[in-house]
Design brief:
Elements (H helix, E strand, L loop, with lengths): L2 H12 L2 E2 H11 L5 H13 L3 E4 L2 E4 L1 H13 L7 H4 L7 E7 L6 H13 L3 E4 L2 E5 L3 H9 L6 E5 L7
Antiparallel strand pairs: 1-3, 2-3, 4-6, 4-7, 5-6
Helix pairs in contact: 1-4
């Protein structure tokens, strides 16, 4: 997935993000990402009216949302509902997701990382994430695509983490 699409998905689905947060999320996906490439991409998106700044945070504009949704319709991998992640009340974090998706399925591995970010999961280490429960249709999609054999789910409360 391109850097532009990842920036749009993160700012649209997660919440407005600062530069440092964007870099950390994106660097975890692509160890080759440099701060210069992120800065120039953000600058280009801003000058094209795709994203804007609110204080120190980056947010997607209506034009960016339109671009994101038009590109999402063109993909074969689904983009799960924005309504699920933008609820008003905070959701309890109680799921650890661990995965080891093979290199030949890299596209799905990258997609899974961006979906977990959009579901408000935090990266614990490269393929270990902690966050709220996942929607049933998301798990069904993983099963349908044969990815469940590479993914493990564990229940834990934040107080259980050391």
């Amino acid at each position: 997935m391109s850097l532009v699409k990842e920036i749009l998905r993160l700012t649209a689905r997660h919440h407005p993000l600062g530069y440092k947060q964007l870099y950390e999320y994106l660097y975890g996906k692509n160890g080759r990402l440099t701060k210069n490439s992120l800065s120039s991409t953000l600058s280009r998106l801003r000058s094209n009216g795709i994203i804007s700044r609110e204080g120190q945070k980056w947010v997607i504009t209506p034009e960016g949302e339109e671009l994101l949704h038009s590109s999402a319709r063109d993909r074969s991998i689904p983009h799960f509902s924005l309504n699920y992640t933008k609820s008003k009340k905070p959701r309890m974090r109680k799921v650890i997701v661990v995965f080891d998706i093979p290199e030949k399925k890299r596209r799905y591995r990258d997609w899974l990382r961006s979906e977990l970010v959009s579901f408000d999961f935090d990266l614990i280490q490269k393929s270990v994430w902690f966050g709220p429960s996942l929607p049933p249709e998301f798990i069904e999609y993983l099963d349908k695509e044969g990815l469940l054999k590479y993914v493990r789910f564990f229940r834990a409360e934040e107080k259980d983490l050391i």
